[in-house]
Amino acid sequence: MARTDSSREMTLFEMWNHRKERGELLQRANQLRLGPSQLTQLLGDSGVRAALQNTRTASLLPPVGTEVFRRLTPASLAQIQQGLDAREEEKNKEVAKDDPPKPTRDLEAGKPLPFIYRDPPPELLNTALQELDPFYQSQKTFIVIGRGNIIHRFNAESSCFLLSPFSPLRTFAIKILIHSVFRFFIMATILTNCVFMTMINPPAWFKTLDHVFTAVYTFEAVIKVASRGFCLGKFSFLRDPWNWLDVLVILSACVEEFVYLGISPIFRILKIIPLIPGLKKTVRDLAQSVKRLAGVIGLMVFCLIFFALIGQQLFMGALMNKCVMWTLATNSGNTEFDFNEFKINQSNHYYLPGECYALRCGNSSDAGRCPEGFTCLRAGSNPNYGYTSFDSFGWSLLSMIRLMSKDFWENLVHLLLRAAGKFAVILFVVLVFPGCFCVLSLAVAVVAMACSEAGVSEATDREEEFSRIVAVLKRREEEEDGREACRAALSEDQENNMEGVDEKQRTCPPCWFVFANFLLKWNCCGCWRWLKQRLYAFVTNPFFDLGIVVCIVLNTVFMSLDHYPMTEKFWQILVEANLVFSAIFAAEMVLKLVAMDPYGYFQVGWNIFDSILVVLSLLELFFVVDCPFLILRVLRLARWWPSLHMLMKVVWRSLSALRYLTLLLFITIFLFSVVGMEMFHDGYGRNFCKISLDRQLPRRHMADFFHAVLVVIQAVGGTWVEAMWDCMEVSGETTCLLFFMMLLPIANLLVLYLFLTLLLSSFDHPASPEEKEKNNLHIALNRIRSAVRTLLGKKTPINPEHTAVDSKDHLALTVVTSDQTGSKVKTLTIANTAKMPEKEQEKKKHPEDDDRGNRPEDCCSDKCLRCCPFLDIDTSRGSGRIWSNFRRACFCIVRHKCFDNFIILIILLSSATLVFEDIHLHHRPVLQTVVQRVEQVTTILFLMEMLLKWIAFGLKKYFSNGWCWLDFLVLQVSLVSQAAAMIGYTDLERVSLRALGPWRALSRFQGPKVVVQTLVRSVSSVFSVLPVVLVVWLIFCVCGMDFFGGRFYFCFNETSGEIFSRNMVNNKSECFDLVMQNYSEVLWKNQKLNYDNVGSGFLSLLHLAASAYSPNIINSAVDARMVESQPIYESNPYMHLYFICFFIFGCFFTFILFIGVIINRLQSDKSAGIPIFMTAEEQKVMKRLVMKPQKPVPRPQNQFQARLFDLVTLRWFGVFMATVICLNMVVLMMETDDQSMEMEIILYWFHFLFIILFLVEFILKIVGLRRHYFTDGWNILDFVVLIVSIMGIFLSDIMWIYSLPVPLFLVLRMLRVLRVLSIFRYAQGTRKLLLSLVMSFPALFNIGIVLVIITFSSSVFGMLTFGFVKREAMIDDIFNFETFVSSVLCVFTISTSASWGGLLRPLLNWPPDCDPLMEHPGFPVIGNCSYPPLAIAFFVSHLFLCFLLLVHLYIAVVMETLGSDDDEQLSEDDLQMFHNTWREFDPEASQVIQYSQLSDFCDALQDPLRIPKPNSVRLIHMDLPLLPGDRIRCVDVLLALASQVVGDSEKMNALKAKMEERFNPSKVSCEPISSTLQRKQEVVAATVIQKAYRKHVLQDGDAQETTGVSVDAGGH
Q: Which of 208, 206, 186, 185 is nearest to 196 (CA)?
């Protein structure tokens, strides 16, 4: 993979294209090896060293002729000490280096030896060796190479001032520390300790065992301290943060002997991480990604605070409103009546059946109303134990986190709808959900960048270094005379490498091969070999594979036919079919064993899988045990099905390549489960009565390990808030909040990192070249196809691939606009309409190129003309000429722009009438008449439009367009509806397909039209892998039918709404006995979502996948016992494992598959130049709008204004205003619902003070900046918020006095929060993220328009179809399909996949669950039942469309975020800024400056050209040409800085002409004599020479002095 420029990030599609290259690069980098002869030449040839002198490798190699691995001796240690002393003396004499040396990455501790070193001799393993890294050679360290050539680095100082590196005790401790057995022993100890952690009541001897564990951990710490030292030295015990875990484990164990803290399990579990090197690297990569997430985390925190403040201002105290019994009149004479006590008494509140919280209400016009006899009062506490509220900032923030994670948010919105009304809630939802979506999209983009870059740069450097070394060795080889000998040596190396590979593959001992040759290879006689050859030809025949595939498909079909209830005869048929298929597959196995021998048979992985299934089927027959896992036989289709094979490969790679990341996720889940159980099981045991009315533990608790694991897994999946409420109620608020607030970000980051890493590394497109190769199944089908063609007598074979491509990839779904000509467009398709605007512009510019551009095409096709010759009219004379002129006139009309605008207006008018067609329309005769007349008029106008287009374009062209077909269909539905209304047939008057009418507007707008075309192409790609997902789900369906078929039934008391206990009713017979005893309220019911057949199973799985948690399905499965038995609470809790497996394999991996094919499709469209989410014009407009640089504000000439200008442009002024804004946020957070009057007055004056400060800021800026103040968008925002804040002070009092509408008052309160938005002005990193988000606004707008139209159409469809459905489950007075607004709320809930099963269950009612003859007084409709198949189709189709749109929304934001740096180029203002700054350093306009001024000049520039100090290293590496006198030219500096920004040679070539034209270097006549990099090298060389000379002089002086002393001594 080519290295990309580091100055910019890769775009999404570049990242997607390089995903395979990235995986191959990382794999190659880990397998780089040099042969023995190459290593000998590299280490011993001085010519090779000379060729590699400028590379990083040269510094790692020892001098020629010396040993690579040298023992550490006292002499070598003394030599190192002398070098340290000499450098200490010279330290004060030298100038500090700009680029100090750094440790070599390849020689870091914990990594294997680089490929440039040969394996050390066995006697040098586990022995102290001298340093290999040049950085550490000047320090007192040594290395020890352990098993696998892993480097371990230690301090050469005495450990704890006692043990020198040569001490036997320290040597023994080092050998123990680096030995794999010691690591395995510690790992086994930790795992054993983890097993005992899961016990709630451990045995009595566990305390002694815990002391043993502590002793082992202490022994490990002692070994580490003895080998490394305690704290002195870089590689001592305490210098490694992972060793702090050992200290914490020991300290916590000692403290818990006296005081129980419960934190010891945390440190003991985390000790697993440093024991596995790959796990440590994964944690380090995650830490790096968290650093990159700093900007997104800051933005997310700010958004949460902002939305929490809005919620606090709008809904403070609203959720306390309840329906209280109104008995004030009856107690007016009672002097002892306490009204406050009366209204907080829960017995006086109104409760809905089955609800444990009182009904919420509001006092606004659109809020919830109370039933008769009750009034709305503020009384009691908030819902959900009082934890759901907006009464203070903390609870409001918790509600915002809940909304962002979309956990049980529909309940919160439902409460707010009843308490505050639709206006406030709609405003709130419109703000919160898009904001949370955008922030989460940015988080996905940043994590995707971190995943794509992890390890790539290091692997690229390693591969480039290896290629350079191999090239030098090869060149050196060619220069030498003994070329043949070297080649022979190289070939020998290759043979040795191959032998080594073979030896690695032959992992079995030799005795096993003898056994295999004797027993597993059957070659006994010639007849047997003849039989084997014939059977081998039979089993490898393509038609044999075809027969096996047919058997697998038929077996799957028969297993899918299982259902409940089932007749005895049908059950016997299924049993016999199972016997037949088991015999077939057993015979297949026997034939292959004979044909291939067991040795060859079991060499193929698929054969092993087949044999396991055959053994399971035989065991099922012998032991008469029903085995549902035989449905796994359908996975054998992956052998011939590339898409299914690719999914299985993704799963396998995730378990192998991403094993460390997956293991880290499991460790996290285990850690939080153990900690949760340790911290909260006592609280659940003592206080569970607070959260359970039936005195049983709730389903989600942490009283034992298994349920704690379930709670943590559900929290990872997004369902956490209800478990947190229960925990807070039984164990305290603070501890539970900390626990869940730590669990959510850590677990979600791990899941997101795992998802993106798997998506970017393990996904291959199913149409990859290696998967296009034909297998036996394809060969057999082709032979059958050829035989059929031969029998039919067809000589010319049909090309089915061409037909398939035409019908699949070129779906006609375009519109004929007024700018398109008729002669050039015969069949308008999505594939060619993407480039239509360019063609249309060319035709507009050159109309003479198209002679037929102003006249229509033929009305009928050629086939019609051949069949009906009378339709071929001569248009040159007579009536034909009149007809032709009339068609031309119609053609001009429909092509006119005003015609399109008029049709759009009619579409909007027709769509608006659909809003009023609710169930109450019959009670409004005037409105009903108006709606009917408008519908009639619009229908006539659409009919006229269709006739005009028929005449203008002709029938052939009209019906070859998908959008015209949509117009035609909707028009026919409207005509049928109008005809039904005229004849009084009311059943057809409310035709639901009229809801498709708004879709016609999409073809009139280019942006949404592009999105629809993209969606259609994505749907075709999704459908290509949808069968794979259905097959995977079929496996879970069949298993679910076997586990839960007929077991979801229960005996139910319809009057009390309760399920009978097992003591009262044990099975179906006892329930029917109660019915026979005239208990009419007793019913034997089944759950609406069950596993009684494949269809119900698929619907249940869809509900599980879309809702992430479905309590009705999961609870029924956990409570289920036997068929026709009454369920028991938590009778089989381990059935949760079935749903966990489905969430992992059926949801997580299949979702990756869907996302992969969608990105693949979008990438191919992007490569083909097809617009994806927005048109080319929108892209250009956004680039000009966003990338347009802001011109610097000139400093005023007036001295007073100039001083104010300097003040407001100071950095400290911005810091002060940012502080003021933060203080304003703090003051807003201090407001509470129950605050005192004194507190309210104080906060009021604080708000007034902030307004004064912002007013002063405005005055200072408007005076200093003048008219330029309004050129900055942030200043405009400040001005608007300031004006609104000032008006709010006066309007709030006026509104309170004159009782103006409450929503307006709430809006004014909310506008106070807008002041905090100005903080973005001072957050540079966050502004960059917001800029990329703004770049994606056109795409988001286009997709949002399509989503709005889909929501509108679905709402109208639901209103017209399900308006009279029986109210139950989630269908109530707020969420229903009776009115348009309520229908929109339901559809919005479905769009977010939030508990949509609660809305679907009432629509699945069928008699006797509903009354088909129920009359609705005043309405012409009879019955309250629905049509379940239609309801299922409606919900599934809407979910599918919303899923596609939301995925494309995420991709749009991620694409713009990752590609934002790619669009960054130098503008004209940037060049002008450079010129102005250069003029300050070059006042004489000589176009040159001194090299010493370069650092200050680059620091004085503005972004994006600025290089802040310290910048000397970067400036040196820019390699700028130097002129005589150490001068630098202007154009050279500009080109170098521009290359740092643009980074692409093509863009640089485009900018070079503009730069040289403005900064013409012709005034400088001198040629460069050097460069900055060369000058630095000269300085370094001179420094080295001076050091060597000084050392030589000192040595000579010491020698002379010694000689003189000896002479004097001799003289004496």
A: 206
